[in-house]
Amino acid sequence: MKKTLLYPITFGLVMLCSLPGCSKQDQARAPGPQAETTTRWTIGMSQCNLGEPWRVQMNQDIRMAAEEHPELRVIFKDSQNDSLKQRAQIEEFTSAGVDLIIVSPKEAAPLTPPVAEAFDKGIPVIVLDRRVLGDRYTCFIGADNKRIGKAAGEWIVKRLGGQGNLVELKGLMTSTPGQDRHSGFREGIRGSGLEIIFEADMKWLEPEARKEMESALARFDSIDLVYAHNDPGAHGAYLAALATGREKGIVFVGIDALSQEGRIYVRQGILEASFEYPTGGREAIRAALDILNGKPVDKEITLPSRVFTQANISEGGEWIQ
Ligand code: FRU
Known about the structure:
Blueprint: H1 6-18, H2 24-28, H3 33-38, E1 41-47, H4 53-67, E2 72-78, H5 83-96, E3 100-104, H6 108-120, E4 125-128, E5 139-143, H7 145-159, E6 163-170, H8 176-189, E7 193-201, H9 206-219, E8 225-228, H10 231-243, E9 251-256, H11 262-268, E10 273-276, H12 281-292, E11 300-303, E12 306-309, E13 318-319
Parallel strand pairs: 1-2, 1-3, 3-4, 4-5, 5-11, 6-7, 6-8, 8-9, 9-10
Antiparallel strand pairs: 10-12, 12-13
This protein binds beta-D-fructofuranose.
């Protein structure tokens, strides 16, 4: 789609909205006659799921940033935690000829080919939060999950004085944040007397985390701390412990620190710490505008992160170095 022509934009949107995956909600965001006069670029955004508050927040951050730019029109698609569906959505965006794609992929391997195909066809692709494999995309935006995992490990070593029994509830291990939050954490606790007595892949999902924690509680009488790769996971573990009356003897640590989720858990004393994982939505729109305006962008944009604890939450947390 040529940036300066209006009719291909309209054509592309008509095509997009005639695609099987294009819901009523998507159609509602297609430009009306008014928008056609101002919209210059169409961005296709494929979100891997909207089942968790963090992803709803990411879309909201993108929407709010894009609304400041009438020249942008964002078409959102939700792949409902299904990699095949997400693959098809990216292929649809590519064949419709959107000007740019933003994707927050569910898993690395299955989403690599459609991203590479779009990129090879000249459509810029911004990969957000979870990575794909290789380097056939325009730009990756996300916080450093290895560093966050390592900081969590170091915080836990300090908190427990280097001794204790841990449960690790991992994010989906076919997604890169799960892999990095795991390896970084193991690096952070290396050399300490901490022992991982139970670990499981809870796939980023609170109900899965709760189920896994029920097994851990049934098997082990002594659990000192749960490190979960996200706050929904830590909360699910807390609920399992609460149901057996063991929540007071266990420290819960999570990642995400959304103001309406993890930070509230910290304030309530449910979690002792939550490590921030910014959504990158606003930064994605900034990068998209640069790319569309022909300005150079870094291939890798790393976002900063903070740790929130009961001691520092009223001061806005502490930045991770
Ligand atoms: C939401 C989520 C977040 C997590 C991120 C990792 O789907 O699980 O909780 O930080 O994805 O990609």
